[in-house]
Amino acid sequence: MKKAFLYLLGGIIIAVSSCNSNTQKTQQTDSVSVESKAVELDKANFETTIDGKQVKLYTLINKNKAQVDITNYGGRIVSIIVPDKNGVLTDVSLGYDKLESFRKEGEGFFGALIGRFGNRIGEGKFNLDGKVYQLELNDGPNTLHGGNNGFYAKVWDAEQTADNKLSLTYISPDGEAGYPGTLQVKVVYTLTDDNAIQIVYEATTDKKTVVNLTNHAYFNLNGEGDSTILDHELVINADAITPVDDTLIPTGDLMAVKDTPFDFNKPTLIGERINDSHEQLQKGKGYDHNWVLNKGKGLQTVATVYSAKTGIVMDVITEEPGLQFYSGNFMKGDTNDGKGGKAYPYRSAFCLETQHFPDSPNQPNFPSTILKPGSVYKTTTVYKFSVR
Asked: What residues pair up with 219 in beta bridges, in sequence order?
């Protein structure tokens, strides 16, 4: 009778344990159990050689057990895991759990470092000191995010200098993708103890050139794989945008946001006006525009996003004069190769890319993106996470 009882008790324990493992995993950290909804990545899926260089997945962690996973293929942020309002660790960055998915045709620059020039350059060309430079065309008649094989597709040299810090370097040779000058680039990711991702960009050149570096992380503060970001509340500290033509190249003018769907100076749901008939929304198929930020020099909070579902807040802090807000209008969700086999459907993520303005080399009234020999391009952006 006693033996039968023990077998029965053992079966109950196994059943309960199995049931729990299928609902929500528990992460063991220094003998403290932390609930987690994040997909656990297999680093072996990122270990390969491309163009003779080693690719790996690097993990940054802070004292709060927040975590950021980054691959040196494209300097891409693969996951950002932070606690929600109930302390459950939640991945708020879209990506893939296998390197091969980041290399598929038509991939949307998920989590990537963007260069040499973030955003679009009209007709893929610009004039510098009387010489016209023709770039690769990869966005209809224009160049987007550095061309066909920009920094997002390069293997960066990586050095993890601390548990919470990763240094990436890349040398872009003179003439790469049509850009003049040998550009030496360094980007340092740091996960701070207040759950902020600090990104410091630095570059030098041996020939006059143009530079505009950014990161193309896709966020969903409900948790990656959630079906929408239209329920997120957004604030952008800006009184104008740079309106665009039919190919999404700035016209050179500024458009006041007051009394338009582009005014996010007060907390507003992303989905509240996204389907309005405004001409600029029609051109972008939603929000895909550069906001002219109200700021001076130095680091300043320029945008805040909030999810009522998880209580997660993201502040965007930057030195840059512009912010590209993209509402996932070209996402399709036609494959299930997101983390954990998820699909990433239409408007299930947003991007807030800090930057100088699109097409600046062809717009003399925009802030300059020219870098000269002897000068150092250096700029910092921070994505800081908290709960409300």
From this structure: 93, 350
Q: What is the span of the domain harbouring residue 200?
A: 43-210
Are 259 and 378 part of one and the same domain?
yes
pLDDT tens figures, 340-370: 999 999 999 999 999 999 999 999 999 999 9
The 10s digit of each residue's pLDDT in 241-252 is: 999 999 999 999
Please say if the pLDDT value at position 29 is more than 80: no
Give the active site residue among 224, 233, 320, 353: 353
Would residue 47 show up in a list of annotated catalytic residues for this protein? no
Per-residue pLDDT at 361? 98
Shared-domain flag, residues 182 and 320 = no
Mean pLDDT of 86-91: 97
State the CB neighbour count (10 A cutoff) for residue 161: 10
Radius of gyration of the chain from its Cα atoms, rounded to whole angstroms: 22
The answer as to whether 184 is a domain residue is yes
From 186, 210, 234, the end of a domain falls on: 210
Residue pair 143/152 in contact (Cβ under 8 Å)? The answer is no
173 plus 245 within the same structural domain: no
Indicate if 286 and 140 belong to the same structural domain: no
Same domain, 237 and 303: yes
216: annotated active-site residue: yes
How far apart are alpha carbons 192 and 17 in whole angstroms? 35
Residues 50 and 197 in one domain: yes
Q: At residue 288, what is the residue type?
A: D
Residues 179 and 313 both lie in one domain: no
Q: Is 200 found in the same domain as 51?
A: yes
Handedness of CA 156, 158, 163, 165 (dihedral sign): negative
The answer to whether residue 20 scores a pLDDT higher than 50 is: no
C-beta atoms surrounding 117 within 10 Å: 31
Whether residue 14 is contained in a domain is answered as: no
Which entry of 145, 176, 216, 224 is annotated as an active-site residue? 216
pLDDT of the residue at 24: 47
Q: What is the mean pLDDT of residues 101-112?
A: 95
Report the C-alpha gap between 314 and 119 in whole angstroms.
22
Decide if pLDDT at 89 tops 50: yes
Count of structural domains within the chain: 2
Q: 154: which DSSP letter?
A: S
